[in-house]
Amino acid sequence: MLLTIEDLTKTFPGTVALDGVCFDLRAGEVHALLGENGAGKSTLVKCLTGVHARDSGTIWLEGKEISPASTLEAQEAGIGTVYQEVNLLPNLTVAENLTFGRQPTRFGMVSGRKMRAEAEAMLAGYGLDHVNVTRELGTYSVAVQQIVAIARAVALSGKVLILDEPTASLDARETETLFQVVRGLRERGLGIVFISHFLDQVFEISDRLTVLRNGRHITTADTAGMDRLELIHHMLGHELEEAEGRRRHRQGGVERLQVRGLARRGKIEPFDLTVREGEVIGLAGLLGSGRTETADVLFGRTPPDRGDATDADGPIDLRTPRTAIAAGFGYAPEDRKTDGVIADLSVRENIALALQARRGWTKPIPRAEQRRLANDYIRRLDIRTPGAEKAVGDLSGGNQQKVVLARWLAMNPRFLILDEPTRGIDVGAHAEILKLIGELTAQGMSILLISSEFDELIAASDRVIVVRDRRHVSELVGEEIETGRIIDAIAAHENGEGAMTP
Ligand SMILES: Nc1ncnc2c1ncn2[C@@H]1O[C@H](COP(=O)(O)OP(=O)(O)OP(=O)(O)O)[C@@H](O)[C@H]1O
Ligand SMILES: [Mg+2]
After folding, report:
1. Dihedral angle computed from the Cα positions of residues 68, 69, 75 and 80, in that order, rounded to the nearest 10 degrees
2. Where does the ABC transporter domain lie (predicted)?
3. 241-328+413-502 — its CATH code?
């Protein structure tokens, strides 16, 4: 066995995050680590790599007991970790990112050429031949950055590679590239721990899997012999609520909002959009196609430089988020790290935040009302927290995501934009959120749903708009909404059918 963890326990004030967990990893395998939001996956990784001190438990690497007290010590022992949010420095070059801290003496006074050669050697075999190592890392896609981070981790550590939700912000093509890299490393004999909420990916890439639930080890098994429903049962401790299947498409309905020729040069070409009461409009497209840009101009995050919008009462101002909120818009963005939660504030404060901003800071929302709101959403979204007063930074990644969602729901907007609302959210909560979308729209809320998961778009949308090369290129309605047609529209070439934009 390459790595063995025995009887690992870790408690935080008020929470038993890990309760006597065992885990082992073979050389040359991909081992998926699964469980609901808050199950303890990231905590296991952090105890293993010295980010957190464990309360008790033993770790063996290649038969030798180790006890890393920092990520550096873990790296030196042979264990490297790559998180979803790439922890490299975007303003440094690719080469600098790959080599910093590695060989201090040789690189104390580095010759650029040497560093460059070193970096190129490190990247060999990762399929990044098109990457210029002297360019800033930040100029490349998240996928490339992710692979650079892996190359660095492998070069530094070389035995165990831990990937904590590495694919959460990658599209299908990028995920495939990443998987090729992972397979290559498996062949070289590395042991790889893969954490993800995408079960399809787990079945595609992993050899074995381990499920945690409420900080306890539930099962370890060969992936090939595991049935999908059985796996979900292990994760949730109960069956997945019978999915309601596909939404009954609404058509017609009162027009609530008209957008005409809205655009921002370099971001999104002019588009029209009519939003009806209680409808879900899906936005499909590849990463970088213009989906988020569409949301950004609608919400004034990127002020539009042409076009206008009206509702039943006349023109509305979408030039800034403040005016968009005043017009009844809400926007739960994708990137919870930069746009999302304020880690030091409590769950209650984070949820009340946007509502407070809308009412104005001079009219504070009474505590009791804040508490009621927070507890309501903790229950509805099943946010795993000891209570409303817990600092959000102490929640697991997926539960932080739910807090962001709750904040915008609490404002009860007329038109809510959700950018990848289920990324990083476990299968159980995933179904809950889709159900909630159904309830909210039944009460009249209109929703713009951006998602990379076709199943989700198909299940939830009344209409799907396909975005490609920063244009809205086609619209599917009702029964037309199916995977094949969405893919065709995404993949179609520029010539051929014209764009639907003015
Ligand atoms: N720094 C911390 N302080 C207090 N509690 C914490 C801290 N980090 C994690 N926890 C708690 O430990 C438990 C396990 O969290 P962990 O982040 O390991 O979950 P996870 O399985 O990675 O979930 P997700 O899928 O949402 O990322 C949660 O209840 C969480 O609130
Ligand atoms: Mg986690």
Report:
1. 90
2. 3-239, 249-494
3. 3.40.50.300
